[in-house]
From TrEMBL:
GO molecular function: endonuclease activity
Renumbered residue ranges of the record's region Disordered: 1-23
Biased composition (Basic and acidic residues): 8-21
Protein name according to UniProt: Uma2 family endonuclease
One Pfam family here: Uma2
Top-level taxon: Bacteria
Domain annotation Putative restriction endonuclease: ranges: 7-119
UniProtKB keywords: Endonuclease, Hydrolase, Nuclease
InterPro entries: Nuclease_put_TT1808 (IPR012296), Restrct_endonuc-II-like (IPR011335), Uma2 (IPR008538)
Organism: Gloeobacter morelensis MG652769
Length: 156
């Protein structure tokens, strides 16, 4: 896998001709054109990880969005389910479904498939916190904080 990555929040992806989803967080390989995807959106070959932060949108993320990411063969998809305080991890897309499915509790740590040496904690401490404020404050969504978590080889 790549030794470098870019963490994006709320940026469109070029999944197929029918849609360009805008996930909460996406980890992508650096743009081969070197312009941080300013002239095109990342496509499935560029995407290392998609993260959805879900409260009332959980069913949609687990249904139509998961199906879309599976069909596009996105390498890994996480749904952070705020209300239930769980992380749903899907990886190894094949034959229209993800072969590896895990549901982890709030105390778990997880390593992205693309970065097995990186361990990310998903402790959700504020049960009534809104999705938008969670996204704004969560380490995966704040590039300054992410730079502190990722090895230098990932952040440049």
């Amino acid at each position: 896998m790549s030794e470098e990555a870019i963490v994006q929040d709320d940026k469109p992806l070029a999944i197929d001709e029918h849609g360009e989803p805008v996930p909460d967080v996406t980890v992508v390989v650096p743009d081969p054109e070197g312009d941080y995807y300013s002239t095109r959106h990342p496509d499935p070959d560029d995407i290392l990880l998609v993260v959805a932060v879900a409260d009332s949108s959980f069913d949609k993320n687990l249904g139509t969005k998961k199906t879309m990411y599976t069909r596009a063969e996105i390498r890994e998809y996480w749904i952070l389910e705020l209300n239930a305080r769980r992380l749903h991890r899907f990886s190894e897309p094949r034959d229209g479904d993800f072969r590896n499915v895990e549901v982890l509790d709030e105390n778990s740590r997880v390593s992205p498939v693309a970065f097995p040496a990186l361990s990310v904690g998903f402790r959700i401490c504020c049960p009534g916190k809104s999705r938008s404020s969670y996204i704004k404050n969560h380490a995966l969504c704040n590039e300054r904080k992410v730079r502190g978590l990722l090895p230098k080889s990932l952040t440049g």
